């Protein structure tokens, strides 16, 4: 697990760490220690759930990524002596309740409402069913990030009989489970509620109908089918499934799940599922509730509204490691998940990665990149931030990577797309982000008198600066020039540089920008701005 520390030493440091994955992993270790001797397990089971009525989304990524971090932290705390598994469980036996708006053949899908997702034809015409299609998308999605997991299908578990024993336990404890569920339901819903949803042998639909009789000895229920006929059916063999909250608790019991996290909005459901799990004779899993994401207006992100940011969109503008960092940081705090958070997430990732090599072992375990990369973060050694690449793309009005590499190789002659592949990816991401978000919003202005005098002094300095002046030296002089002029605060000087020269209100460390863009080029930019009475025009 570490090239520098023994497993024992690493475990000792992990036990002292306050990083949230270790805090979660410690709870699992404590759970194992409290287990009765006759219930000691030889493996720990982690689970994430997925509703395949739609395509995988950013919440799916976040849940699997965070659970993977906890899983690795647990392995460190136990010196990898206890086997762990991560199940990605698909609730694909759920009935199709509404037709998604983002798929083809919607009229065809409407004809199959109510049927299990694995019995609904695939609107894309590629797989056995809509459920199979979305499950394939889930597996491909998780595989693309290199997650280590085992896919499990609710349909397979119900139809194969692997849930049968647990379903008979639910039937046996039906009265107690109803005592748990009924107070959580509206009066109208409570009047006809049953944990069991029979699958009609006539229509193939998962029915939400009144159950008129329970026969524990026979293992059956009796219900009124859609045509009014009375039907007695076993609860086993895939002839019934459970309502999703009892299903969750039953699954924890049947599989022996030790850890599962969920969103804050599911806290009441977690509590109900936990009570049902205990009724069935098992201890509910450990876990925690993460906060939900907000859009740019502070509204909760909704799949149906489409007011958030998708994984595909994030990965158009930034590497997956930056998304993993976003998921790692403050999971219990509500965070805006919109395009403007991407540049900061990338540069934070680069900063944490750069710090890692110089940190003491205990500090490394607090560093997010340790958790993102299972204790082995890459050595990126890049001194070019996403922010500065973004501003370089902006001032160069770049459309192709080669335009930025012309500046980069002059600044770092040893760097090429081949020798610095991660930097090359960042260049592409920065160009995409500039094209879609920065360029349309660029707005230049002319400098005022105070700014004009400061810019003239900066121009004179750049023209006469020593040949060996590096980015830090240039930055220091930019800073000193700002102090010599009557700006209300130094921040106003830097804001003027960005608005006058870059057409935006934020920007990079200007000394680094000069070093990368080039002195002659920066000087020409300043001359052009000083010569224009109305400011630089966006190209």
Distance between the termini: 52 Å
Mean pLDDT level = 93
Shape designation: elongated
Strand order of the largest sheet: 1-2-3
Q: The biggest beta sheet, please?
A: 3 strands, parallel
Tell me the fraction of residues in β-strands, as a range. 5-15%
Word description of this protein:
Helix 2 packs across helix 3 and helix 8 (174-181) runs antiparallel to helix 11 (267-279). The chain has helices spanning 7-16, 20-34, 58-77, 106-110, 130-144, 154-160, 164-172, 174-181, 187-190, 244-255, 267-279, 311-317, 320-328, 342-356, 361-364, 368-372, 386-396, 401-411, 421-438, 449-464, 471-483, 490-502, 510-517, 519-531, and strands spanning 43-50, 83-90, 150-153, 196-198, 211-215, 220-224, 230-234, 240-242, 262-263, 289-290, 293-294, 335-336. Strands 1-2-3 form a 3-stranded parallel sheet. A 3-stranded antiparallel sheet has the order 5-6-7, with no helix packed on it. A two-stranded antiparallel sheet has the order 4-8. It is mainly α and 539 residues long. The relative contact order is 0.08. 48% of the residues lie in helices and 9% in strands. The model has no long low-confidence stretch (mean pLDDT 93).
Keywords:
539 residues, three-stranded antiparallel sheet, 12 strands
Short description:
This protein is mostly helical and 539 residues long. It contains 24 helices and 12 strands.
What topology does this entry show?
Blueprint: H1 7-16, H2 20-34, E1 43-50, H3 58-77, E2 83-90, H4 106-110, H5 130-144, E3 150-153, H6 154-160, H7 164-172, H8 174-181, H9 187-190, E4 196-198, E5 211-215, E6 220-224, E7 230-234, E8 240-242, H10 244-255, E9 262-263, H11 267-279, E10 289-290, E11 293-294, H12 311-317, H13 320-328, E12 335-336, H14 342-356, H15 361-364, H16 368-372, H17 386-396, H18 401-411, H19 421-438, H20 449-464, H21 471-483, H22 490-502, H23 510-517, H24 519-531
């Amino acid at each position: 697990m570490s090239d520098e520390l023994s497993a024992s030493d690493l475990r000792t440091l992990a036990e002292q760490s306050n990083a949230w994955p270790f805090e979660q992993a410690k709870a699992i270790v404590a759970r194992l220690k409290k287990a009765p001797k006759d219930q000691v397990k030889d493996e720990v089971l982690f689970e994430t759930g997925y509703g395949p009525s739609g395509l995988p989304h950013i919440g799916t990524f976040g849940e699997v990524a965070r659970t993977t971090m906890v899983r690795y932290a647990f392995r460190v705390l136990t010196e990898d002596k206890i086997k762990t598994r991560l199940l990605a469980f698909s609730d694909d036996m759920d009935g199709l309740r509404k037709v998604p708006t983002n798929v083809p053949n919607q009229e065809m899908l409407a004809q199959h409402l109510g049927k299990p997702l694995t019995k609904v034809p695939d609107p894309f015409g590629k797989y056995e069913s809509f459920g199979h299609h979305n499950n394939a998308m889930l597996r491909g999605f998780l595989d693309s990030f290199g997650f280590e997991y085992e896919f499990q299908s609710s349909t397979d578990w119900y139809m194969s009989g692997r849930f049968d024993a647990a379903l008979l336990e639910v039937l046996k404890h039906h009265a107690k489970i109803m005592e748990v569920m009924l107070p959580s339901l509206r009066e109208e819903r409570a009047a006809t509620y049953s944990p069991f949803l029979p699958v009609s042998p006539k229509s193939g639909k998962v029915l939400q109908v009144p159950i008129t009789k329970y026969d524990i000895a026979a293992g059956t229920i009796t219900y009124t089918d859609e045509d009014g006929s009375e039907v007695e059916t076993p609860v086993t063999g895939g002839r019934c499934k459970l309502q999703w909250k009892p299903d969750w608790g039953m699954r924890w019991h049947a599989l022996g799940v030790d850890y599962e996290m969920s969103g804050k909005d599911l806290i009441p459901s977690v509590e109900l599922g936990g009570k049902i799990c205990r009724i069935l004779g098992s201890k509910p899993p450990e876990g925690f509730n993460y906060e939900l994401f907000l859009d740019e207006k502070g509204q909760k992100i909704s799949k149906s509204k489409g007011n958030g940011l998708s994984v595909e969109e994030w990965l158009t503008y930034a590497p997956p490691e930056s998304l993993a960092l976003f998921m790692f940081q403050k999971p219990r705090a509500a965070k805006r998940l919109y395009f403007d958070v991407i540049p900061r997430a990338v540069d934070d990732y680069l900063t944490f990665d750069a710090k890692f090599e110089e940190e003491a072992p205990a500090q490394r375990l607090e560093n997010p990149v340790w958790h993102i990369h299972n204790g082995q973060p890459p050595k990126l050694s890049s001194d070019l931030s996403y922010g500065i690449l973004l501003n370089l793309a902006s001032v160069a009005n770049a459309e192709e990577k080669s335009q930025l590499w012309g500046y980069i190789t002059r600044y770092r002659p040893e760097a090429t797309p081949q020798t610095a592949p991660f930097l090359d990816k960042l260049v592409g991401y920065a160009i995409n982000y500039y094209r879609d978000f920065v360029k349309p919003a660029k707005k230049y202005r002319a400098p005022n008198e105070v700014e004009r005098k400061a810019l003239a002094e900066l121009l004179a300095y750049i023209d006469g600066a020593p040949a060996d002046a590096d980015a830090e030296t240039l930055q220091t002089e930019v800073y000193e020039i700002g102090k010599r002029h009557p700006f209300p605060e130094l921040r106003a000087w830097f804001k003027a540089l960005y608005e006058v020269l870059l057409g935006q209100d934020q920007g990079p460390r200007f000394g680094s920008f000069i070093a990368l863009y080039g002195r002659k080029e920066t000087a020409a930019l300043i001359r052009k701005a000083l010569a224009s009475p109305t400011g630089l025009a966006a190209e």
